[in-house]
Structures are given as C-alpha cells and as structure tokens.
Design goal:
D-Maltodextrin-Binding Protein, domain 2; single chain; 35% helix; alpha/beta; 9 helices; four-stranded mixed beta sheet; six-stranded mixed beta sheet; Arc Repressor Mutant, subunit A; 14 strands; rod-shaped
Length: 321
C-alpha cells in the first residue's frame, strides 16, 4: 500500500516537534488523528518509529533513519510546489513579450511601461518576432505572450481581447491605377496579382448576388470577427485564395513584400498603421472601404496563463486607444 502524503507530513512534523500536541496544532489536526497516523505507519514498517513515555517522545533508530531518508525529498517537493505557485500566482520574475510588426511594437512598449508602474518587481523583455514563426516561438516558450493579428488560434492557445483595431488597406506600386484613389472595394482585387508571404492578410469575403451590400451573414462556424482559420491559415489570417486574385511572387518578410510591391510585381493587403511606419516613395496605400477591420491582440499558451501574463494583458487592454 503506498504511503499517503499526509502520513509523511505527519511523521516528519512529529520527528521535528517530538510532541503530539504541538504536532497536532501545527498541522491543524487532533492529537488522536496524529497518533492514529503514526500507528498506521509503524504497522506498515513493522517496528516502532517513536519511543513514547508519559514525559517525552523520541525517535527510534529506525525512525531517525527514516527521517534522514525522507526529509530531503519532502523539502524538494515542497520547494517545487512553492515555485509552481509563485509562477502561477506571483508577479515577481521575468515576462517575455513577443510582438509582430510596428503597430504592436509601439503598443507593447506602452503596455510594458504601465505594467512596470503597477508591478515594479517583474522584469519585462520585449522581442520582435517574424509572423511566419511567431506561434512556433510561443509554443517553444521563447516568449510568454504574443501580440499579433487575429485570428491566432489553436487548441493549446488562448486569445485575449483585441487591443488595436484598424482598417485594411492595399499596398500598390506608386504608379498603379489605384494609387490616386481615395478607396477601392474588395471586388476591385479580382484581377490583381497578390504577393504571397507568411503575413498575408485577406481583403475579406467577396459578396455574391444573393448577399447584398451588407455581405453574408455569419454561419454557425463563424464568430462575429469572421471565419475561423483553417489548417492552411497563418497567424495573420488565410493566404490569398484564387478568388482574391492570382498569386504573385513569394516573400519571407514584410520588408521583402514592400520591395516587391514597389518593383511592380504585385499588391498586398495591409493594416492602416503602415502609412505611419512604412512610408515609401515607390509604394502607395489605398483604403479598402468595404473590408472588415483588422484586430490585433494578445495570445498565450493556455497552460502558461500565469499571473504575469494576465497582468500584462490587463495593462494592455486598459491603454487609451
């Protein structure tokens, strides 16, 4: 029969106190319960572990040897549990926050300042990550928390609230026929050649004749934010389909995307923040007026939902727009 944890705890506490009354008080049990637990252990061992008289309690040689054998393992288990509790509930330590793109980079800097103001005993490290490998770095525990473009979903991931919302725009060559327009519609992209990248963002669903101007109603598998990603979709959303235009050249990073767009090799759907952070003389940005907005926010591994993670998400969610 395996030894129960409370039996080990009772034995080691009595070995330290050498007094049934103090042991019972320390453990929050009755003296009778302590005595009964020790008797069960002694029957299991086959010899007495304590010598009892009306005046004192002492360890037998077997009891002393058992104490020496059990104490290190008992303390190691308690220390491990204390570390786990501190990790889950405590705020002291280090939190590594990953972010994708300039817009989220600026946001997490502001969130980190607010977080440090509230929790000065926790160090925050910020890491820029490329969207193509962002979720992999999260799952490898290289970052504790990731800020990116929704949807970022998986059975092992939890998403927080959207902390940044922006319009979708189309990056086109400066001499493109769209470059001088105030806005375009999703339907205008039908024949456009789209650059393909890990951070590809769809323009949005195309309306059919039955859908009308308001667009299709969400199905049972769709949430208010739009269709859920499939296995082929990246963290920033699905790559352009054949209905959204012919596939153009492939790029690995956002800077490569803009270089290809500027060279006239294709167009690319982006968020409105690019007009502030990625101005280029060879690229123009045009609003897609009927596309749903992009939503950015935090995501973390469900099993790593520590107090530090929750506190940082709260700090980011409370920032003014």
């Amino acid at each position: 029969m395996p030894v129960e944890w409370f039996e080990i705890e009772t034995f080691l506490t009595l070995a330290e106190e050498l007094h049934f009354g103090r042991t019972a008080e320390r453990l929050g049990r009755t003296k009778a319960r302590v005595s009964q637990t020790i008797q069960v252990l002694e029957r299991r061992v086959g010899v007495p572990l304590f010598e009892r008289t009306s005046r004192r309690v002492t360890l037998t040689p077997t009891g002393r040897r058992l104490t020496e054998d059990l104490r290190p393992a008992y303390e190691q288990v308690n220390a491990a549990m204390a570390r786990a509790v501190a990790d889950g509930r405590g705020l002291a330590g280090t939190l590594t926050v990953g972010f994708v793109g300039a817009a989220t980079g600026q946001l997490v800097v502001r969130a980190a300042e607010e977080f440090r103001r509230r929790h000065a005993d926790c160090e925050v490290r910020l890491r820029e990550v490329q969207v193509g490998g962002a979720v992999e770095r999260l799952r490898a525990d290289e970052v504790d928390l990731l800020f990116g473009c929704f949807p970022i979903e998986g059975p092992d991931l939890t998403s927080g609230p959207a902390v940044l919302t922006e319009a979708r725009m189309l990056a086109v060559p400066a001499r493109h026929r769209f470059a001088g327009r105030a806005s375009i519609a999703i339907a205008d992209l039908v024949r456009e050649r789209l650059v393909v990248a890990p951070c590809s963002i769809p323009a949005g669903p195309r309306p059919s004749a039955e859908e009308g101007l308001a667009g299709p109603r969400p199905s049972a598998e769709e949430g208010p934010a739009g269709p859920r990603p499939s296995a082929e979709e990246g963290p920033a959303g699905p790559r352009p389909s054949a209905e959204e235009g012919p596939a153009g050249p492939a790029a690995e990073t956002f800077q490569e995307v803009l270089a290809l767009v500027g060279a006239g090799q294709g167009v690319f759907v982006v968020g409105a923040h690019v007009t502030r952070f990625y101005a280029r003389p060879d690229v123009a940005y045009v609003l897609i007026h009927d596309a749903p907005p992009l939503r950015w926010g935090p995501v973390w591994r469900t099993v790593r939902a520590t107090a530090r993670v929750r506190a940082f998400v709260d700090a980011a969610a409370g920032l003014p727009a």
